[in-house]
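[Solved] Which block belongs to which protein?

Original post:
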Amino acid sequence: MRRYKAREKVDEGIYFNLRRLAFKSLEERGRLPGNEGDVYFRLPLLLVLPVGLLVSVAFLIFLPLVGFAMLAMIVIEKTGNGLRALARAKHLTRNPAHQLGRRAR
Protein backbone atom coordinates (compact mmCIF):
# COMPACT_ATOMS: atom_id res chain seq x y z
CA MET A 1 0.00 0.00 0.00
CA ARG A 2 1.20 3.46 -0.83
CA ARG A 3 1.76 6.02 1.93
CA TYR A 4 0.26 9.49 1.74
CA LYS A 5 1.14 12.46 3.90
CA ALA A 6 -1.32 14.88 5.47
CA ARG A 7 -2.36 17.77 3.20
CA GLU A 8 -1.37 15.77 0.12
CA LYS A 9 -3.77 15.96 -2.80
CA VAL A 10 -5.32 12.52 -3.44
CA ASP A 11 -8.11 10.84 -5.40
CA GLU A 12 -11.43 9.84 -3.84
CA GLY A 13 -11.34 6.78 -1.61
CA ILE A 14 -11.02 5.59 1.96
CA TYR A 15 -7.81 6.47 3.78
CA PHE A 16 -6.57 5.17 7.13
CA ASN A 17 -4.48 7.30 9.51
CA LEU A 18 -2.32 4.87 11.46
CA ARG A 19 -1.19 7.43 14.05
CA ARG A 20 -4.74 8.42 15.07
CA LEU A 21 -6.38 5.09 14.17
CA ALA A 22 -8.96 6.97 12.12
CA PHE A 23 -10.57 6.53 8.74
CA LYS A 24 -11.17 9.38 6.33
CA SER A 25 -13.48 9.01 3.38
CA LEU A 26 -13.06 11.41 0.47
CA GLU A 27 -15.90 11.57 -2.04
CA GLU A 28 -13.97 13.67 -4.53
CA ARG A 29 -10.37 14.57 -5.25
CA GLY A 30 -8.96 16.72 -2.46
CA ARG A 31 -6.41 17.11 0.31
CA LEU A 32 -6.06 14.81 3.28
CA PRO A 33 -6.63 16.43 6.70
CA GLY A 34 -4.18 16.30 9.57
CA ASN A 35 -0.98 17.72 10.94
CA GLU A 36 2.52 17.39 9.63
CA GLY A 37 3.77 13.90 10.32
CA ASP A 38 0.38 12.19 9.86
CA VAL A 39 0.59 9.29 7.43
CA TYR A 40 -2.36 7.81 5.55
CA PHE A 41 -2.79 4.55 3.67
CA ARG A 42 -5.40 4.15 0.95
CA LEU A 43 -7.61 1.12 1.54
CA PRO A 44 -9.12 -0.74 -1.41
CA LEU A 45 -12.90 -1.10 -1.20
CA LEU A 46 -12.65 -4.89 -1.27
CA LEU A 47 -10.52 -4.73 1.88
CA VAL A 48 -12.78 -2.28 3.74
CA LEU A 49 -15.81 -4.59 3.80
CA PRO A 50 -14.16 -7.64 5.44
CA VAL A 51 -12.24 -5.44 7.87
CA GLY A 52 -15.47 -3.69 8.88
CA LEU A 53 -17.13 -7.06 9.41
CA LEU A 54 -14.26 -8.32 11.58
CA VAL A 55 -14.26 -5.16 13.69
CA SER A 56 -18.01 -5.39 14.27
CA VAL A 57 -17.79 -9.08 15.24
CA ALA A 58 -14.93 -8.33 17.65
CA PHE A 59 -17.02 -5.53 19.16
CA LEU A 60 -20.00 -7.88 19.64
CA ILE A 61 -17.83 -10.53 21.27
CA PHE A 62 -15.67 -8.40 23.55
CA LEU A 63 -18.20 -5.80 24.73
CA PRO A 64 -20.07 -8.27 26.98
CA LEU A 65 -16.76 -9.68 28.23
CA VAL A 66 -15.64 -6.20 29.27
CA GLY A 67 -18.91 -5.75 31.16
CA PHE A 68 -18.46 -9.04 33.03
CA ALA A 69 -14.82 -8.18 33.83
CA MET A 70 -15.86 -4.80 35.26
CA LEU A 71 -18.59 -6.46 37.35
CA ALA A 72 -16.07 -8.99 38.70
CA MET A 73 -13.64 -6.19 39.62
CA ILE A 74 -16.37 -4.32 41.53
CA VAL A 75 -17.44 -7.46 43.41
CA ILE A 76 -13.82 -8.29 44.33
CA GLU A 77 -13.15 -4.74 45.49
CA LYS A 78 -16.31 -4.57 47.63
CA THR A 79 -15.61 -8.01 49.11
CA GLY A 80 -12.04 -6.99 49.96
CA ASN A 81 -13.23 -3.78 51.63
CA GLY A 82 -15.80 -5.73 53.65
CA LEU A 83 -13.27 -8.34 54.78
CA ARG A 84 -10.82 -5.60 55.73
CA ALA A 85 -13.48 -3.86 57.84
CA LEU A 86 -14.44 -7.18 59.44
CA ALA A 87 -10.82 -7.94 60.33
CA ARG A 88 -10.43 -4.45 61.82
CA ALA A 89 -13.59 -4.88 63.92
CA LYS A 90 -12.46 -8.32 65.09
CA HIS A 91 -9.08 -6.91 66.09
CA LEU A 92 -10.73 -4.17 68.16
CA THR A 93 -12.98 -6.62 70.00
CA ARG A 94 -10.04 -8.92 70.84
CA ASN A 95 -7.87 -6.04 72.01
CA PRO A 96 -10.14 -3.71 74.01
CA ALA A 97 -7.15 -1.57 74.97
CA HIS A 98 -7.20 -0.15 71.43
CA GLN A 99 -10.78 1.11 71.78
CA LEU A 100 -11.36 4.77 72.41
CA GLY A 101 -11.54 5.87 76.03
CA ARG A 102 -9.62 2.91 77.46
CA ARG A 103 -6.09 2.80 78.70
CA ALA A 104 -3.78 -0.15 78.37
CA ARG A 105 -2.43 -1.53 81.65
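(Second protein starts here: sequence line, then its C-alpha coordinates.)
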Amino acid sequence: MKPIVDSSPDVYTELDRRADAGLDVALLWSRGTGSLIVAVRDTSTGERFELKVAGEDALEVFNHPFAHAARRGTGWCVESQR
Protein backbone atom coordinates (compact mmCIF):
# COMPACT_ATOMS: atom_id res chain seq x y z
CA MET A 1 0.00 0.00 0.00
CA LYS A 2 1.45 3.38 -1.04
CA PRO A 3 2.07 5.86 1.81
CA ILE A 4 -0.45 8.70 1.94
CA VAL A 5 2.09 11.40 2.70
CA ASP A 6 5.75 11.77 1.86
CA SER A 7 7.51 11.38 5.19
CA SER A 8 10.75 13.08 4.20
CA PRO A 9 12.38 15.06 5.65
CA ASP A 10 10.15 14.29 8.64
CA VAL A 11 9.51 10.71 9.75
CA TYR A 12 5.90 9.71 10.39
CA THR A 13 4.64 6.69 12.26
CA GLU A 14 1.27 5.33 11.26
CA LEU A 15 -0.87 5.04 14.39
CA ASP A 16 -4.03 3.83 12.67
CA ARG A 17 -5.34 3.32 9.14
CA ARG A 18 -8.56 2.31 7.48
CA ALA A 19 -9.59 1.84 3.87
CA ASP A 20 -13.06 1.43 2.41
CA ALA A 21 -14.80 2.22 -0.87
CA GLY A 22 -11.66 3.70 -2.40
CA LEU A 23 -10.90 6.01 0.52
CA ASP A 24 -7.74 5.59 2.56
CA VAL A 25 -7.61 7.37 5.95
CA ALA A 26 -4.49 7.37 8.12
CA LEU A 27 -3.57 8.85 11.50
CA LEU A 28 0.12 9.79 11.41
CA TRP A 29 2.46 11.00 14.15
CA SER A 30 5.67 12.94 13.48
CA ARG A 31 8.56 11.67 15.53
CA GLY A 32 10.50 14.87 14.93
CA THR A 33 7.85 17.42 15.85
CA GLY A 34 5.30 15.40 17.81
CA SER A 35 2.55 16.64 15.50
CA LEU A 36 -0.41 14.55 14.35
CA ILE A 37 -1.96 14.47 10.88
CA VAL A 38 -5.06 12.78 9.55
CA ALA A 39 -4.47 12.10 5.86
CA VAL A 40 -7.28 11.16 3.47
CA ARG A 41 -6.79 9.92 -0.08
CA ASP A 42 -9.23 8.82 -2.76
CA THR A 43 -7.35 5.95 -4.37
CA SER A 44 -9.36 6.11 -7.59
CA THR A 45 -8.83 9.82 -8.35
CA GLY A 46 -5.59 10.63 -6.51
CA GLU A 47 -7.28 13.49 -4.67
CA ARG A 48 -6.19 13.98 -1.07
CA PHE A 49 -6.17 16.28 1.92
CA GLU A 50 -4.46 16.42 5.28
CA LEU A 51 -5.61 17.83 8.59
CA LYS A 52 -3.24 18.74 11.41
CA VAL A 53 -4.84 17.73 14.70
CA ALA A 54 -4.29 18.15 18.42
CA GLY A 55 -3.74 14.97 20.39
CA GLU A 56 -7.04 15.17 22.22
CA ASP A 57 -8.91 15.52 18.89
CA ALA A 58 -7.01 12.88 16.91
CA LEU A 59 -9.50 10.00 17.06
CA GLU A 60 -12.49 12.27 16.48
CA VAL A 61 -10.88 13.72 13.34
CA PHE A 62 -9.70 10.26 12.21
CA ASN A 63 -13.26 8.92 12.53
CA HIS A 64 -14.93 11.96 10.88
CA PRO A 65 -12.35 13.63 8.61
CA PHE A 66 -14.86 15.05 6.11
CA ALA A 67 -16.84 16.87 8.80
CA HIS A 68 -13.66 18.43 10.17
CA ALA A 69 -12.36 19.28 6.69
CA ALA A 70 -15.64 21.05 5.89
CA ARG A 71 -15.46 23.09 9.13
CA ARG A 72 -11.91 24.15 8.28
CA GLY A 73 -12.61 24.87 4.64
CA THR A 74 -10.13 22.20 3.56
CA GLY A 75 -10.68 20.88 0.06
CA TRP A 76 -9.37 18.08 -2.07
CA CYS A 77 -6.18 18.53 -4.06
CA VAL A 78 -4.81 16.26 -6.77
CA GLU A 79 -1.81 14.20 -5.75
CA SER A 80 1.22 14.89 -7.93
CA GLN A 81 2.63 12.01 -9.92
CA ARG A 82 6.11 10.89 -8.87
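Accepted answer:
You had them paired correctly. Confirming on the second one: The first strand starts at residue 12 and ends at 20.
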